[in-house]
Each structure stands twice: as C-alpha cells, then as structure tokens.
Design a protein that fits this description.
The protein is built from 1 helix and 9 strands. By secondary structure, it is α+β, with helices and mostly antiparallel strands. The structure holds zinc ion.
C-alpha cells in the first residue's frame, strides 16, 4: 500500500517510532506541509515528523521518470538475486543429481531434475516436503509418499 496524501488530522497511521524502535500507531496532530505531518506515538507519546515516502513526488503525481525507473530496478534486483542464488547452487559440482518422484525420499543439497520445472536445487528437506530452488522461483514439493 502506498499513500499519495497525508492521513487526516486525528487519524492514526502505522509508522516507525524511533523511541520504541518498532512500528507503532501514531496519531496525526497537524499537517506541517503538503507532504509532512506532526505525529504522536500512541505507545510512548513521543512526537515526530512523518513525511510521505520519498518515491512520491511532492505534487502527488503518479510515479514517473527516475522514481518509476528506481522501482523497476528494485524488482530487477530481486529477480537477479534469485537468479544468482540459483546459479550459485547449480555450480555445486559435488551435489548429486536425482530425478523427481513424489515416492522417493530426497535429501538436502541435491540437484533435482523435474519433468515440468527443469533443474532445481533442494535447499531444504523435511519429512514430507522439499524446498527446491528452480530457475524461475522456489517451489515446495512433496516427497517420501
Ligand atoms: Zn513510540
């Protein structure tokens, strides 16, 4: 959820309180500008200035240009970090390659050949479930049936 406008005075917003060192409800005391407001923590009563997230433009227009690009880059970074983990796991030459079947019992740190999802790496193995890192995403599969 992203806020485009400040919450009205006397309403509560959920935001980080430095004093509590946790996310707390804060009552809005007053608006100090178009993008910031004075708020009071409901737990410790400390006041602070709440500002709308930086990604929002001051005029409340939708994200354009640099801000939109930054958001896109964050999404790409998340995708590429999954890809990095997959590549790193796949580069483990010592891992045994096994073929998936729900009747088999698999161990952690094995490479799994799946007929539909392709090659994956078993990151974790429980009694009846395995967590497998595939190229596109992490999936939980059943085993040991
Ligand atoms: Zn507080």
């Amino acid at each position: 959820m992203t806020m485009n406008t400040l919450p009205p005075v006397a309403k509560s917003i959920f935001t980080f309180c430095k004093k509590c060192d946790a996310d707390r409800y804060h009552v809005v005391l007053a608006h100090t500008s178009a993008t910031s407001a004075k708020v009071k923590c409901e737990i410790c009563n400390s006041t602070k200035t709440f500002s709308l997230p930086k990604a929002q433009s001051k005029t409340g227009k939708p994200l354009t240009g640099a801000a939109a690009k930054k958001r896109e880059q964050t999404a790409n970074a998340r995708r590429s970090s999954h890809r990095n983990e997959y590549d790193m796991l796949m580069s483990d030459e010592s891992a045994k390659v096994v073929s998936y079947s729900m009747k088999e019992k698999f161990e952690k740190n094995q490479k799994l050949k799946h007929p539909k999802f392709g090659m994956g790496f078993i990151r974790d193995a429980l009694n009846d479930k395995i967590e497998v890192v595939f190229e596109d995403e992490i999936r939980t599969l059943v085993h040991n049936r």
